[in-house]
Every structure is written in C-alpha cells, then in structure tokens.
Amino acid sequence: MTEMTSIKSQLQHQTKRPSIFLRYREKDPNHGYIRVYPGTLNLPQKRQKPNHIYVSLPVSMETNTQDVINMALERFNIQDRDASNFSLMQVLLEKGVHERKLESDECPLPIIHQAKKESLRENRMTRYYLQENEDPHGPQIALFVANLPTSLSQRQYDMILINILGQENKWDSFDVIYYEYGSLVLVFNCPGKATRAFNTLKSASFDDKQLMVLLLPKIQPHMIPENVVPLMLMVNVKSGGCQGLDLIRSFRKLLNPHQVFNLENGGPLPGLYVFRNVPFYKILVCGGDGSVGWVLSCLDNVGQDAECQSPPMGIVPLGTGNDLARVLRWGPGYTGAEDPLNILRDVIEAEEIMLDRWTVIFHPNEKEQDETKTALANDTNVADTNEDTTRLFVMNNYFGIGVDADVCLDFHNAREENPDKFNSRLHNKGVYVKIGIRKIVNRRSCKDLNKLIRVEADGQLLELPPVEGIIIMNILSWGSGSNPWGPEKEDQFSKPTHHDGILELVGLNGVMHLGQIQGGLRSAIRIAQASHLRITLLAEIPVQVDGEPWVQSPGQVVVLRSALKATMLKKNKHKMKRRNTEPSIFFSGTEHMSCASSMSPDFESETT
Asked: Taking a C-beta distance cutoff of 8 angstroms, is the pair 259, 344 a contact?
C-alpha cells in the first residue's frame, strides 16, 4: 500500500472486504544478520556462559552457507576444527520440530527475507544451528515401540518384530524391555536401517492394535553444567479440554522441544528413558491427579534403573479435582491465563517435600477364591488352578469405601460411555451433582455401611458410628478441594500432614452429608488416625483408590505404608515479586540457575 495516501482511498474501489497484512521491511535488503546456535556442540568452557548461547553473524546476499559455517566456527572459538565436518541446519519450531540442511552454496539471507515476507511468526520461530555431520557421541539411534502384548519373553517380542520388520531391518540390540507395559526400546547403529524400521513400524499393527513408535532424542549428561537442573515436562493433552495442547505448544517454544513429552504418545516411559542417565532433574506434570499417579507409578517400576530415582515433581493442574495440586499450592486448576514462563519460575522456586504413599491390598474371601478357581477350571478344562485374585494398588491421595465410591463409579461409567462430553471441569462437576441428587433418592446401595464392614486401626477394632461411607485420607484435600477432616480443634487427634506416616479415617452419613462437606458447610466424622489398617468387607461394596472405582467382593483389605516414596515440589507461598517484563530468573546473591536452558540449544541468553 502507498505510504502517503489514506488507507480509505486505497480501499474504496475494492469489491470485497480486503484483508490487510503487516509485513517486515528490511532497512538494508542487501545486508543483514543471522543468529547461529551451537546446538549440541561441545564448546570450550569460556563459550558456555549464558550470553554466548548464540552468535550474530553479518551476511550479505552473496554470503553462502559455507561462509556462515566458517564465521560461526571462529566466533565459537573452535576454528581449528574442519569446516567440512559441519552443516548449517534450519529448524522451524512451529507445530512440532521441522529441520532442513542448507546446501553449502545456498545463501541464507534471501531465505530469511522470504520467511519475513511470508510470515513474521514463522520467521520468529525459525532457528539456525551449527551441527556436526557425524555424531561425536556415537551413531546409536533409539526407537521406542509400544502397544505390544504385555508380559511376553524377549524371544517372543523378537519374533513379533522380526515378522514385521524382516531380517534386513533388524535392530542391533534391545536396550530395555518394559514387560508390564508391552513396550521396549530398540537400538540401531545404522541411520538408514533405523529410518526404514521407523516407517514400517508406525504403519504396522499386532493383534488388531496399531503399534506406536517414537524416535527418541539423546541426552549427553556430561554436557549439562553443574549449576543447571534440567526440567522434563509431561503433558496429558486429554486433561482440561484443549489446555494440554496449548501448553505443549507454549513450553516447546520456551524450552528445547525434546524436553516436552505428550503422554498420549507412549505415556511417561519415553521421557523417563530419555532422562535415565541424567544425575538430577525435575519433572513438571501437566494433568490431573490421575496423570501424576501415572507418572509416579512408572517411576516406581523403572526408576530404580535410572541415575535419578526420585526426581522432584511439580504439577500444572488440568484435571477436575486436582486435590494433590491444591495441597502442594499449584492451584485448583489451570485457567489458560497463566504465563508459562512464570510457571517455570515457580518450579525453580518450589520447595522439595516428601509425600507418603500407601499400599492397598485386596484379598477376596477364600470362598470367593474357590469359586473363581472353579469357574476358571471349568472354562479352561483344567482340574485345578492357583490363580491369585489378590489386587494391589499404590495410594497417593485417598481410599474411599461406600457412598463416595458409589458416586465416583457412576461418574466413571458415564465418562466411559461418552468420553467426548467430559472435556471441561464445569461439565464434569455438573455430572457429579446430578449423580449425587439421584443417590439421595436411592440410598440402598451403601445404607448401614457400618454393619457391612469391620475396621482395625493399628490392631484395635474400631466401633464405627452409623455411616454410609468412609474415606481414608493421605492428604487434606478431597472432592475438588474439600477438607473432610475439618479445621483444627481440641481433640485426641494430632495435626495431619502428608508426610507424617499417618492416615486419617473419616465417616460420611450419606450423599447429603457428602454435598455439605464439598460446599464447606460441614466436616466429616473423625473416626481414627492410624499407620496400619485392616478392613473386612462382609458384602459387595463400591470402593475407589485415587478416583479409580469398582465394586469389591467380600474379603480383606489391608492398608499399610509403602516403601515407595515420592519427592514433590511445593509451590513457594511467598513468591518473589517480579515485573512481568523481567527477562531472566536470578536469585539475589547466588549464581544464575536454570531449570530450562540446560537442554535447550535454541534458548537465547536472555531467556532461561
């Protein structure tokens, strides 16, 4: 458009309503600058300071890629290395990670001008990296393969994959097999073979299940500076509507995209494998309490083989209840208005605390076991079977028996029938209310629960009051932020915490009482505090452990303190005040610390 002419006069002859785009105009179209990042290059120590993460190089329309490589090597103080062993990579961070190798005779400045002309946003998300043509850390490429049958032998997994890939594309070794999850990691020494295997596996299926395959990044722990704590993000995109997808995009712009893992792709295992050799790091889980429990469960199974067995874990609450996140001060729920950079600051400032965890063991009655064995024998034409029907769970938050588990079960069944409708906290809570109203009318399922169960606390048989439900709590938040234990008062009980090795046992009179507790009008009935519980179920009763409900047959339930511990991050209550425009994270009187930049070759010096 003409600069000195009014916009209105330039648009008056348009037959359709036009769109006006803002484009970047070069001050000097024949000269400019290109920022080059060292990526994973092992630079001399003096070049690893935060203000030397990239170099700005002057270029003209005639400057080609080889000229840029030569200038970058000199500026990075590694000019003694052979320039022919390096390439200049163009990486676009929009909607994933897309990279392209620039040919040696290509001129970067016209490419930069064209990107600015087409899209300012795309140009801003484009970075240029100096990369060695051969990986100095070895050629090994790791492929994560999931959705295989669980609990097979290595030979059986070998046969399944050979049938899919063929001998010509066989991997060099199994690095690790996650038998319980039907997942494994294949290692290739040949990039071409790894590429063919990846393309074959991503379109393959077994037992009518589509296989899931990921190309895993490689971390070099020795390249992480001593004063830097890497951060791994795990995002459940199914939590909180579309908020998970928004967070993935935001964090991949702030951090190295390989630090951000989508739990929809293989769950927590790919991220834990990638970080297995890092001596210390932190985890930020973006999801509900179920997502946190999922990550903790995987850590229990694979963490003992990692350098950092219990990394501290923070939470961005995307679920419906978010009770653990509330206790740890991460808030009732992510609204979308929070600045992701401020979330990273909160992770740096957060306090490390221990979270008690509990093992819940369900033993069916011997009669129930005999009936199960007989039915199984009849079905399989086997005379006898030693099938063990004992079930074991690890509890992080709470364990409910009776009315609250009954409501939770109905909600769970409704969500299983129509999962697409349960995409917002408001809708989910509305469904809970409707189910609760129905339960007020029909109270038969959990009526006189105190006559259907017996509870022993630390070896002492308890005399239960008339209740329709009991809740065994590890944390003082339940049902989206309610505190059934109630405020502090003078009685025989001690002040509860989530790291004291003690459980709190409370009773519910019914659905109406449950609603009053959630509304903050009443507290539950305090029954006991104990470190060991034995509960006898005399009938089929609804139960739930950390929101996972089912109907439990008669038998014994034992709750005891687990040897498994969790290190959690508790958000700092008295946060340091900063201006929103402040570009860096510094602590007064201490060295510059970063939870993000350790893994981020594309991270500029002014952002950590």
From this structure: no
What one-character DSSP code corresponds to residue 519? T
Sequence-ordered list of residues with C-beta below 8 angstroms from that of 211, at least 6 positions apart, any chain: 145, 146, 147, 148, 164, 201, 202, 204, 205
Which strands make up the sheet holding 525-530, listed edge to edge?
A: 525-530, 503-508, 469-473, 398-402, 541-545, 548-552
The two tokens of residue 156 are 């059986």
**Other C-beta atoms lying within 10 Å of the C-beta of residue 534:** 18
Query: Which H or E run contains 291?
Result: helix 289-302
Task: Report helix, strand or coil for 102.
Answer: coil
Q: What is the value of pTM for the model shown? A: 0.72
**Stretches in the chain below the pLDDT threshold 50:** 47-52, 376-377, 380-385, 576-608
- Strand runs labelled E in 341-446: 351-355, 358-364, 391-395, 398-402
Q: Where are the alpha helices (DSSP H) in 108-256?
A: 108-118, 120-124, 154-165, 191-201, 243-254
- The kind and range of the H/E element at 437 are helix 425-441
How far apart CA 108 and CA 274 sit, in angstroms, is: 33
Alpha helices in 357-422 (DSSP H): 366-380, 403-417
Report the half-sphere exposure of 161 (CA within 13 A, side-chain side).
33
What's residue 563's pLDDT? Answer: 85
DSSP 3-state of 444:
coil
The answer to whether the CB of 244 falls within 8 A of the CB of 287 is yes
CA dist., res. 505 & res. 525, Å (int): 9
C-beta atoms surrounding 519 within 10 Å = 9
Residue 605: per-residue pLDDT? 33
pLDDT at 234: 96
Instruction: Give the residue among 264, 245, 255, 244 at the shortest CA–CA distance from 282.
Output: 255
Radius of gyration of the chain (CA): 29
Q: What is the pLDDT of residue 432?
A: 58
The CB density around residue 106, as the number of other CB atoms within 10 Å, is 15
CA proximity to 281, closest of 323, 312, 246: 312
For the record, the structure tokens of 601 come out as 């070759």
555-561 and 566-570 beta bridge pairing: unpaired
Q: How many residues does the chain have?
A: 608
Amino acid at 117: K
